[in-house]
Amino acid sequence: MKKLLIAVLMLCLTSCATITNSRTYPLRVNTNAQNASAKVYDSVYKLPADVEVTRSNKPLKITLTYDTITRDYSVKSKTMSKSSVGNILFGVLYPEALLVDILTKKGYYYGDELFMDIYDTLPEVKRIISSRKKHITYEENSFNINISIPYANIFLLQPESEGIKKGAGFFGLTLGAEYFYKKNKYVKLSAGGIVSFPIPFPVPLINDGEVETLVSLYSTLTDNYQLNRFSLGYGLSYSFYRYDHNFGDDNYTNQKDKSVKGHGIGLSFNTYYRIGRRFNIGFVYNPTFISIYPQTELLYQHTISFDLLWRIPI
Hints:
Helix content is 11%, strand content 57%. The chain has helices spanning 2-12, 16-20, 81-86, 94-104; strands spanning 24-31, 37-40, 43-46, 49-54, 60-66, 69-75, 78-79, 108-109, 113-116, 125-128, 142-157, 165-182, 185-197, 211-227, 230-246, 258-275, 279-293, 297-313. It is elongated and about 90 Å long.
């Protein structure tokens, strides 16, 4: 129950924008006036300039000065469409995630680039869709911390004396660290766990009937390639599996609940696509081929996860 409450709090205080957006961001400001400057907040910039602005639901005030002329502009903020789409990932908690965007103001922005045309009769700012590529480059000998939520999981397990058990469910948590030994190559060490929670949002469940639960705890070591927004990794995995069979309160035959454990060694594969500066979505495939507990034998098992990953540079 305590773990479920922690998961609820984490999701209720999280949204797509709070994960992918920082409180400030660089805004390109430009004009067709010669030798012009712009005052934003309390600072004056020679145009064109990249101005670090704070996300807010309030209009951004800009004062343009050229020759002996001064013009005042007001830029209305708007919500980011990619944040609204990203919040769909939170399923039934979409309204809460959207509310978090509004309260933290990380879901607002003024555009990528603003242009002030001095020949316009009214002092209106034009928003320009930026064509500048927003690639993030990683330096050699740099480190990242990883925090990820394996949101949807698929299991194929073979617990001893139980045959093949297939299942799917939601939620988990993975922590990891990355080391870039080249600008486009890095090693990653991760450890985490996933579970076959039956519904896509965390609430306490009361089951009167039989319930089968699949759990996997794992550690992986992978070599990875970074290509612009895409990454691809492969390596080794060590997995702990558990199969639980709870017969529930309506157990008229008085059958005992089961919990069967197993350990396996295998491979690990992952691929991700970066959205924003730090947020990534992708898939993780962990197949094991050798069982080392409860007995040593060749035995295929696997888990597949749709993963929401946050990379934090240190």
